[in-house]
Give the backbone structure.
Amino acid sequence: MPTVEEVKTHDNEEDCWIIIHGKAYNVTDFLDEHPGGKDIILKYAGRDATKAFDVVHPRDMVDHLAEENHLGDVEGDMEAVAPDDADEEDEQTEEEIKRQELISLKPDLSKILNLFDFELVARQIMTNNGWAYYSSGADDEITLRENHLAYQQIFFRPRILINVSNVDLSTTMLGCPSKLPFYVTATALGKLGHADGEKILTRACGTSGIIQMIPTLASFSFDEIADEAIDGQNQWFQLYVNSDRKVTERIVRHAEERGIKGLFITVDAPALGRREKDMRSKFSSDQDSNVQKINEKESKQIDRNQGAARAISSFIDTSLNWEDIKWFQSITKMPIILKGVQRWEDAVRAAEIGCSGIVISNHGGRQLEFAPAPVEVLAEIEKFLIFVDGGIRRATDIMKALSLGCNGVGIGRPFLYAMSTYGQEGVEKAFDILRDELEMNMRLIGATKIDDLNESFVNIKGTGKRTIPNDYLFNSVYEPLGSSNFKPKL
Amino acid sequence: MPTVEEVKTHDNEEDCWIIIHGKAYNVTDFLDEHPGGKDIILKYAGRDATKAFDVVHPRDMVDHLAEENHLGDVEGDMEAVAPDDADEEDEQTEEEIKRQELISLKPDLSKILNLFDFELVARQIMTNNGWAYYSSGADDEITLRENHLAYQQIFFRPRILINVSNVDLSTTMLGCPSKLPFYVTATALGKLGHADGEKILTRACGTSGIIQMIPTLASFSFDEIADEAIDGQNQWFQLYVNSDRKVTERIVRHAEERGIKGLFITVDAPALGRREKDMRSKFSSDQDSNVQKINEKESKQIDRNQGAARAISSFIDTSLNWEDIKWFQSITKMPIILKGVQRWEDAVRAAEIGCSGIVISNHGGRQLEFAPAPVEVLAEIEKFLIFVDGGIRRATDIMKALSLGCNGVGIGRPFLYAMSTYGQEGVEKAFDILRDELEMNMRLIGATKIDDLNESFVNIKGTGKRTIPNDYLFNSVYEPLGSSNFKPKL
Amino acid sequence: MPTVEEVKTHDNEEDCWIIIHGKAYNVTDFLDEHPGGKDIILKYAGRDATKAFDVVHPRDMVDHLAEENHLGDVEGDMEAVAPDDADEEDEQTEEEIKRQELISLKPDLSKILNLFDFELVARQIMTNNGWAYYSSGADDEITLRENHLAYQQIFFRPRILINVSNVDLSTTMLGCPSKLPFYVTATALGKLGHADGEKILTRACGTSGIIQMIPTLASFSFDEIADEAIDGQNQWFQLYVNSDRKVTERIVRHAEERGIKGLFITVDAPALGRREKDMRSKFSSDQDSNVQKINEKESKQIDRNQGAARAISSFIDTSLNWEDIKWFQSITKMPIILKGVQRWEDAVRAAEIGCSGIVISNHGGRQLEFAPAPVEVLAEIEKFLIFVDGGIRRATDIMKALSLGCNGVGIGRPFLYAMSTYGQEGVEKAFDILRDELEMNMRLIGATKIDDLNESFVNIKGTGKRTIPNDYLFNSVYEPLGSSNFKPKL
Amino acid sequence: MPTVEEVKTHDNEEDCWIIIHGKAYNVTDFLDEHPGGKDIILKYAGRDATKAFDVVHPRDMVDHLAEENHLGDVEGDMEAVAPDDADEEDEQTEEEIKRQELISLKPDLSKILNLFDFELVARQIMTNNGWAYYSSGADDEITLRENHLAYQQIFFRPRILINVSNVDLSTTMLGCPSKLPFYVTATALGKLGHADGEKILTRACGTSGIIQMIPTLASFSFDEIADEAIDGQNQWFQLYVNSDRKVTERIVRHAEERGIKGLFITVDAPALGRREKDMRSKFSSDQDSNVQKINEKESKQIDRNQGAARAISSFIDTSLNWEDIKWFQSITKMPIILKGVQRWEDAVRAAEIGCSGIVISNHGGRQLEFAPAPVEVLAEIEKFLIFVDGGIRRATDIMKALSLGCNGVGIGRPFLYAMSTYGQEGVEKAFDILRDELEMNMRLIGATKIDDLNESFVNIKGTGKRTIPNDYLFNSVYEPLGSSNFKPKL
C-alpha cells in the first residue's frame, strides 16, 4: 500500500505513477499506448488524476493495465497529491460564464424543427473541446461536407395516386426489428457532450425501438452501456481491433455473451485521422485529440532517426488485414460487418469471405480527406447487405440511400448534438423528427413501406457533377485582385 | 336558442362550442378534422370566434358542419364571450407600426418593373404570417428554388429576319380562349394578403382575359368567387379530395353547374407538407399552418402508442388512388386534369385512363423536397395536354416551357404578391408586365404566335448540370476552418 | 418666320412646336416616332429644346423632318421660351459635386492595367444616365454576364519551343488591313460619355490602325464621324433598317459614296430591348431609354383596346426579313454582313443568299435574355466569314474566339468606358493594353501570327457546363431559412 | 581608377555608371538588358547602388558585364555618391512599423498545422513587394487558382484491410534518392523573403533528404547555393536560356562540373508574364517586376514606330525551339528535362528527341492565363518520366498526382512562405507536415509505398466539370440589378 509521499516521487516520464479513485497505478509503460497521448497523463504524474480521468473514461478502463501495475490503495492526505488545476476548476472563465448563460437561454425543445437545430444549439452551448471533437473532420473538411451535399445532387421521381393512408416505417436489420430504418451509429467519448454520455443514447433507443451500435471508445464501459438496455432492446458493437489479439478476443467474446447482435469491425481507421479544427481548439491537455499532437512529435523524432517507416502505438492495429477476418469468424458467431468499405472491389471481397454485410462509410469525413461520399459509392455496389453512414440529416437523405439499395442507414453526430443539448428527451425528439419527416415524405413520394423504395424513385443523373465545397483555407490565403485606385482626397 | 352563459360552459376539448356571426356551433367532433388544427379553435372555446374566423374563412364554411351541431342564435351580452385577444387587437405592436409605415411608403405602381418587385414589396409590407405562409416551401426549400433556377439552365436559339410586326399572344386552353398563355393557378387563403382575397384575382382575370383556377382552400366560398366573374369569363376549379366522398361529389357537381370548364384534381398532396419557415413565423395561433403543429403532436402520441402506421385527418383523403379517377369521370362531364404529375409513367397512365391532361407541378416546392423542377420533367413527356407551374417569373420562363411542349403555364405566388401589395391594379399590372415581356421576347426570338414555339428555339444541354441552391441550414451550422492565430498584442 | 409668342402657343401633344438652334419645327407628327419617346419632346413643347437636343443628337438630325415642318428662324426674345430647367442646370446636385470630385481624383492613365480598370473608373465618374445606358442589359442580365463568363470555360493548350521572337498581330477583315484582330463595334449615343463622342473613337482608330464600325444611332451625324477619319482609314457602317425604305436607301447609298467598306445590318433588334437597370436610373426625362417607358404606356393602352397584336413605331422596321436582304444587294456593292446571327441555321442561310459574312452577336446582352453566349454559338458554325462580339475583355478572350474559327472580334463597351474616362488617349491606351496582352499571350501559347490560331490551341470540353451567373433579383427576394432562436436575454 | 567626382558625371541614360561594392561599372549598354528594367538602375546613375543591388542580386552577377565596363575601384568620399534614398531607409514607414509588430507576434511554429498557415503568416509579415512578387499570377489569376482547385475534383478510392504498419515514403527521381516524393522547385529572388534566401532551402533540403532545383534567377550565385549543400546532397538546375549561347554554355558546363544531377530547361516562358497584382504593389522602383513596366513603355514606343513585330531583351531567348535541344544534348551529359510542357503532343516529341523527362507545369499560373491545370494534363500523357508542379498544398494532392502516373511533384511557393516566415526551421517543418500527412493518408488509402499508387486509387470523373474561380475584376465592375425603392421617409 503506497503512501502519498511515495506516489509523489514517481512524477516523470521514466517513472510515472498516478492515483485514480484512491488507488495508485504505475503507468510508465502505458504512456506510449495511451490513445489520448502521454502528455495528458504526465500532467498528473505523481498525483491524483481521478477528476480528469472520469471526464472521458469508463471506470473499469484501469482494469486493462497489467496486474503488476496495480499498486493498491494510497495512504495519507490526498490533498497533498491534488492536481495543479484543482483550484482552477472552481473559478470560471469568461467563456464558460457566457456558455452557462446560453445554456439557460436555449430554445425550448418544442422549437426544434429539424436536426440542424440541435447542431446550432450544440455549437453554442457545448464546451469548445466537445464541439471541436464532435464536429471536426479531416484536412479541409471537404469529404465531411461532401458526405451531406452529395445527397443534394439526387432528386426524387415521386409517384401519384397511391393509397398512402397507412405508412409502415419499420424494418429489420441483421435480424433485429427496428421501428425506423436507421440506427444510432458508434461515436466516441459521449461524456464530452453529456455527463451520462452513451447511456443517454441507449435509453432513447430503448424507448423508441431503435438499434444502437456501442462504440469501442465510449466514455462508459461496454457493460455500463449494455446494462442500460431494456428487455429485448437490440444492440450492436463497433470494434477497433487492438494489436493485442487477446484483448480483442476477450472483448468480442464478452460482447457475444451479452447478446450483441452484430459485430462491426472498423476497417477505415488503421490510424486516427488528423483533424485540424480539433487540434486548434483549446483541447489543450485533456482528451483524445492529443493522440495527434503526440503522434506529430514522435513522428518528427522517429522520422529524423529511423527514416520514413515507423510503427504507431499498439492501440489500433495497423496490420489488420483480410486474413484477420477469418480469425474473427473463428471466435464469434455474431454476424461480422466491415465498417468503412469505400469501393466495390472490397465489397465483393467481403461477400466472398463470408462477411454478413458492409457499412459504406468514410468515418464521418474524419479520416481520409477526399474519400468519396458514401451515397456515391452506394451506386457502385449491388446485392449485398449494405448500411451507409455519413452526412444524413433529413428523411429525404435516408429515403435516397434506401432507394439506391442500402438496407439501413447509420446516423451519428446529429444524435450526439441532440444528446448534448437536451439529453434523452432531445434524442427522442430527434427520432420523432426523422419519423415525422419520413412518414410525410413516404406519402409524398408514393411509398407505403420501406421495401417499396427502389431506384425508380430517384434521379441520380446529377451525381458527380458536384460543386466542391468552399476551400476555406485556400480562399483565406488567396488575396483577391484589386483595381487601380483613385487618388486620395487631400 | 343557447344563452351566452350556456356557451361559456362548453370551453374545453371534450366539449367545445364556439360562436360565429352570432350563432353557436358545437365543434367538439370537428376539432380533429380542422385543417388549421384544433389549437386555434380551442383558443375560442366557449367564446365568440367570428373575428378570427373571418380572417381566413369564407362565411359559408360553417355549413359543412353536421346539422345537429348548428345550435342557433346566441342570446345575451356578447361582450361576455368576447375572446381574450379582443383588446390586444387595438394596440399595435411595434412591428405592426413599422409595417404600416412601410405601406405608406411603398413604391408607386409605375415603378414596378417585374414580378420580383412585387415580391420584394410584399416581403416588407405583408404581415409576418401572410408572408411566411405564401413564401414558404418544404424542408430546405431546395425544390422551391430549383423550380425557378432550372429555367436558367435553358438558353434560347433565336431566329433572325422574321417579320415580327404582329405578335399574337392569345391561345386556347381546355377550349377556353386566353389572351395570354398562362393562367392564375390555385393558391390558398387569399385573405392573408388582401381583405378581398381571391375576388381580386377573379376581377383582374375578368378585365384581362385570363383564366383563373379557383382553389378548394380559398378564403371566400366557391360561389362568392364564381359570382365575381363577369359574363363569359372562364374559370377552372382545383379540388382537394375529401375523405367524405359525398362532400366531394356535392362540390364537383356544383362546380359543373356553375359553368366551371376544368376540374384539376390535386394528386401531389396526400398530406400537407411541413414548411419550417412558416412554422417559425409568429403564425402562432391563428391559421392553417397549425395543421403542422397538431400533426406533430399527434404523431408523437399516436406513434408511441400505435406504432408507425397511422391515419391523418379526413380532410384530405390519403387513400386517393387511380381507381378513384373513374368515379370522378362518372359524376362529371368537366375535363379532368391531374395536378401534380412528376414522372412520365404517371403521365402515360393519366392518358390511358382518359384524363384530359396533366399539370406537371410539385406544388410550388411546398410538398416533397427534392421533387424535380417541373421544366425538367417536361422534357420527359410527349404529346399530351400539359400544363406546368412552379418558379415562373419571367416571360422567358414561359417561352421555354411552351417551347418544350407544354400548352400553358400556371403562375401562383407572383399574383398573390401583386394582389397583396397593390390589389386588383397590381394583378393587372403583373399581367401587363408579362405581356410586355412576352411580346418583346417573342419578337426577339423570331416567333409571332404561341404555336410557333417549339424545341428548335431552346438549348437544353445545360439541364441537370445544376448548381444546387445554397443549403442555408447546413451552412449555418458548419463552422469554417480557421488558421493559426497571431499572438494577442499586449 | 414664327415669333416667340407664336411658338409658345403650340405646347401640347396635339400641336407641338419646338425650337432648335434658333429655328422652329413642328414635331407633332414625329412625336410617336421619336426613338427617345415623346415625353422628352413634350417637356420642351413650345420652347427652346436646343440644349437637351445637343446632349445626344447630331445637329443634322432635324433634316429628317419633312420639309413642311421646318418653320424657319424664330423671332423675338429667346429668354421667353427658355425651358423650365434652364436654371436648374446651373446649380449642381450633391451627386454631381461628388462626381466632379471623383473626376479630379481619377487614377493616372499609367495606372490603368486592363480594360476592367476603365470600367471601374467609368462607373464612378460617368453620369448615372450615361453609365446606366452603357452598362445595362436585358432582364436579369444573365446573357450580358454569360457573354464574358463563357470564355472562362475555355482553356488553352499551349505549344512549347516555338520560335516566337517575332509576333505579327496584323490581319485583314473584309479586305481592310487592321493592325490588331479586333474592330471597334457600333454603340449608340457616344455623347453620353464624352462631349466628342464617336469622333474620339474615330481619331483613336486612325492613329492605331483599327477599323471602326459607325453606328446608326450615333450622337454625331454619319458625315461628322466619317469626316474625322484620316486618309486611308477604313470604316464600316452599322444599319438599323428604317420602315421608310427611302430613308434607308439614302443612308446606304451615302455610306457607300463615302467609302464605307462594309454594311452591317442589325438583325437582332426588331424592337429595342427592355433594360431595367437603365429604366431605374434617374434617366428620367432626357434620353433614349424612354423608348421603353413610352412603349410600356402605349402597350398598355393599345393592348387594352386592340388586343395583343400591335405595331411599334416605324423607326425600326419589325417586318425586316430575309427577302429584304435581296433589296439591299440591289442598292449597294458594299459587302453585306448580318449582325446578330445566333444559330447555325441562319448562318447557312446567310451564306446561301450571298451575304459576305455574319456577326455572331446578341447585342451585348441588351436584347433577348438567355440568348446564347456568342463564343458558344461559334463552335456550331463552320467555314464562313465570321465576326464575334460581346463580353470580350482580355486578349485571351480574343485568342479563344480566333482559335475557334472567327475572323475578327468586335469590342464595344470597353472602348466607350475608355473614351468616357480618358478620351482619345484612353481609347489608344485600351488598344495598347490589348496589343500587349495579345503579343505576350501569342508568345506564351506558341503562335506567331493570327493565322496560326486554330482549334488545337483550345480545350472546349468545359463549354456549356456553366454556372449560371447570380440571379440577383431572385436572391434578393428569397428569404433564407432560419434556425430556432435562443431566448432573449432579460 | 575613377574618382567619386568622375562617377557622378555619368548619371543619365546615355552615359550611366554605377558603383557596387566600391567598384565602378559602366552599365550604359546593359540598361536595356536588365531583367529588372532600366528604371531601377537609372535611379542610381552616377551613384552607389550597392545596397539596392544586394537586396536581390548575387554578388558575382557583375561578372557578367563585359570586361571593358569594369572600371575599377572608386576613389574619394563615398558619402558624396550616396543614393537619394540613403536617409529614407532609416526612418520607417507606418506600414513597416506595423509589419515589425506582426513579426513579433507571429504564431509559434508549433501552431502551424498545414502549408496554408505559412502562407497566411507570410501574407501579413512579408514586405508588400516580396509578397506581391511571390504570390501573383497572370491576368485574372484563374490558372493560378485552378492549379490547386483542379485537385479537388479528384476523389480517392481507398482500399481497406491492407497491412499498413510500415509505410515507406522514399523514392528515386532521376537516379537521386529522395526521402519524400517531392522536390523543391526553382523560384526566383529568394532574398525577397529571407536574407539567406535560397541558401535556406539548400540547408533544409540537406537535413531532410529532399532534392532542390536551383533557379537561374536566384538571389545568390549558383556557386553560393551549390556550396551550401552537404555531402551527397542532390541538386538539380533550372535554366532560362540566354540569347547569348556562350553564356548559356558556360552556365550549363559549370553546373555539370559541380555535380548537378538534372538540367531542367524552362520552355514555358519565352517572355516573362504580366502579373497585375505585382504591378500594383508598391514594387515601384526596386525589383524584377519592373521588367513589365519597362516592356510596356517600350512596347508602346516600338509598336507605334515599328509595327506589331518586335523583339524583347536578350535575357530570355524568345527564339528557343526544338532544334536547340539537340545543341544542349551536345554540350552536357546531364539528363535534360523540359519544364513547362502543357499538351501531350509536346510530351511525345520530347520523348522522341531523347529528353529524359518533362515537367508538366504552367509556371505556377504566372505566365499564360487559362493554361490548363497540370493535374488535368497529366491524365493525357502516358509512360514517360513526368514531374508535375503547381497548386500542390496537401499530401492528398501529391498522392493524386502520383496515382495518375507522375514520378514526383515540385512544390515552390509553400516553401518560400515557410522560409520567409520561419527560416530553415520553417522549411523543415513544412517538410514534416507533408511527411506526416503523406504517411497518415497512405495508411488510410491502403498503400504502403510510393509505387503502390496507381489509377485505381482515384476517381477522376469529376475532372473538367469545374467551377471557374471567382472573376474578381469582372465582378467588381459589374453593378448588380436593383429593385424598386420604397419612398424616403420624410
Remarks:
- Residues 282-313 of chain B have pLDDT under 50 and may be disordered.
- The first strand of chain B starts at residue 11 and ends at 12.
- Chain B has 18 helices and 17 strands.
